[in-house]
Amino acid sequence: MSYTPTRSDFDQYMVPNYAPQQVIPVRGEGSRLWDQQDREYIDFAGGIAVNALGHCHPVLVEALKAQADKLWHLSNVYTNEPALALAKSLVERTFADKAYFCSSGGEANEAALKLARRWAHDTHGAHKDKIISFRQSFHGRTFFTVSVGGQPKYSQGFGPVPGGILHAEFNDLESVRALVGDDTCAIMVEPMQGEGGIVPATPEFLQGLRDLCDANDALLIFDEVQTGVGRTGKLYAYMNYGVTPDILTTAKSLGGGFPVGAMLTTDKVAPSLAIGTHGSTYGGNALASAVALAAVETIDTPEVLGGVEERHALFRELLEAINRKHGLFKEVRGMGLLIGAQMADAWEGRAKDILPLAIEEGVMALIAGPNVLRMAPSLVIPEADIREGMARLERAIDRLVAQG
């Protein structure tokens, strides 16, 4: 590269649909990053729950390098060994019988929704096409998934949305019961709403959805794009609840930073995606599959999964200590290492104001909507990095409170 890019280059050359922070990270190791000026940051953002093993984890680096010398891409005119190995691993570790690969969570959810509609059409007829999801849910940015998602701001201004989509209230089973019927083909839900504010589902709610789907011959879809692959302390969040979906979507942590997504389903449902009904040019890409297999095999161990709950407890303890000092948060919630701190009434809408101050103090965090500070760090972040990062976050919050 003959020049050093700057933050102003984003404004000049990139479509303005993002507003990135002013720093440009250029190097990462574990849970720490360094910018162009070699300033260090502790990463509590994790690439929005993607970097499940931190940056440049040696197992993932080795998997990528080894596969890079063999085979990168074939398309789905052929299959490849890494994709088959990944499919076998995911099926053997979950409820699923079959896997479908793509490049992102949005694509995985698009495939899930199309499969549900196609299965209902094949099994029951064209009348059975209604999809129920939930207000404040988020399922991706394709036009179908953004319409199923329960945040109208993401679909406004793009023209008429697809029909046959209904929205109920999350954690309110009666609101679902009022909508479900013989024409329902699927209910789609996040076991814990991510972009909607880090809100876990109650066990009774998810079990109730399973029962309603069974009673109405509809499919239950779990969107585990953000909660999957160890994020909640189990390989997938459904395992915490003992409620099994018919279709599950996964991405983000699945590739540990390499773009990859998957839809998992059963032999009952999978045949409806027959040859030619759906596809993804990059789905099952050999490089992505090799890295994802290494990530899954590394994460799905007692050492990593057991450590997630220990780290959750430490994050919660330190956040609550900050809160006792300032009363900034109404509630700290979440599961595993997807943690949200909802702003108190006096600070409503101010979560975003923490982020630039945190960057200045050397820690990266996220928000989940305007009112929730979100953290989704590496599942193997060292305790020392948690404590140091939280000390930096506390300094940022001290400054916010001083500003008033």
UniProtKB/TrEMBL annotation:
UniProt entry keywords in alphabetical sequence: Amino-acid biosynthesis, Aminotransferase, Arginine biosynthesis, Cytoplasm, Pyridoxal phosphate, Transferase
EC category name: transferase
Residue positions where N6-(pyridoxal phosphate)lysine is found in the record: K252
Pfam families the UniProt entry points to: Aminotran_3 (PF00202)
Catalytic activity line of the entry: N(2)-acetyl-L-ornithine + 2-oxoglutarate = N-acetyl-L-glutamate 5-semialdehyde + L-glutamate
Positions bound to pyridoxal 5'-phosphate: F138, D223, E224, V225, Q226, T281
Presence of keyword Calcium: no
Residue sites binding N(2)-acetyl-L-ornithine per the record: R141, S280
Enzyme Commission no: 2.6.1.11
Note from the entry: May also have succinyldiaminopimelate aminotransferase activity, thus carrying out the corresponding step in lysine biosynthesis.
The name this protein goes by in its record: Acetylornithine aminotransferase
Species of origin: Bisbaumannia pacifica
